[in-house]
Amino acid sequence: MRKKIFLTLGTPVLFGLVGTFALQTSSASAADGNWLQANFIETTQQVTNRVGDLGVLQIINTGTGTVQGFGSATMVIGITQDHDVTPCGPGSWTNAAVRRITLAQGVLVVEELADACPTPSGTIISGTFQVDGLSSSGAFAGAWGSGHVTIDVATTTSFLIGNLHLRNSDN
């Protein structure tokens, strides 16, 4: 069974995060889908810290960037971290997030799940994303796709790689 994991670009260590998320069309066939890739610089706007009593931290980040093939974009991401769930031992946590990317062509919504795991070189956040075509609009209405995401907390760099299928195209 394939484990679904969502990424969050807003851990407490990642305030002022430089995120990478790109959307780029590949030469893949319609059956293979399109390549997903874009770049964002994020800023934390709001933090609700209930780790002490509930084990939960909630973060709202905003950012600007460029989505390859679509142009400039802004984004908002709402992140919930559960620090009482430790998928890779002490100091780890899980993330669940919804990212709203606004472009001239419409709004692309991406849902993310991830695990944040400490390593000797720093915390690495790794997971998957899924396109939410029902919540997306414009050119992204009805879109679907998924992929893998990794964030190196030490460098505040995020990578999101996967597929995007647009409903009203040959993709």
Description:
It is a single chain. The protein has 171 residues and is mainly β. The protein has a single domain, classed as AOC barrel-like (Beta Barrel). It is 0% helix and 54% strand. The protein has strands spanning 18-20, 34-36, 38-50, 56-67, 71-82, 93-103, 106-119, 122-131, 146-152, 157-164. A 10-stranded antiparallel β-sheet has the order 1-3-4-5-6-7-8-9-10-2, with no helix packed on it.
Order of helices and strands: EEEEEEEEEE
The number of distinct helices, counting runs of at least 4 residues, comes to 0
In this structure, how is the largest beta sheet organized?
Answer: 10 strands, antiparallel
Class from secondary-structure proportions: mainly beta
- What CATH architecture do you see? Beta Barrel
End-to-end Cα distance, whole Å, is: 27 Å
Low-confidence segments:
1-33
Strand percent estimate: over 45%
CATH topology: AOC barrel-like
The geometry reads as globular
Tell me the number of structural domains. 1
Q: What's the gyration radius in Å?
A: 16 Å
CATH first level: which class?
A: Mainly Beta
Percent helix, as a range, is under 10%
Q: Whole-number average pLDDT?
A: 78
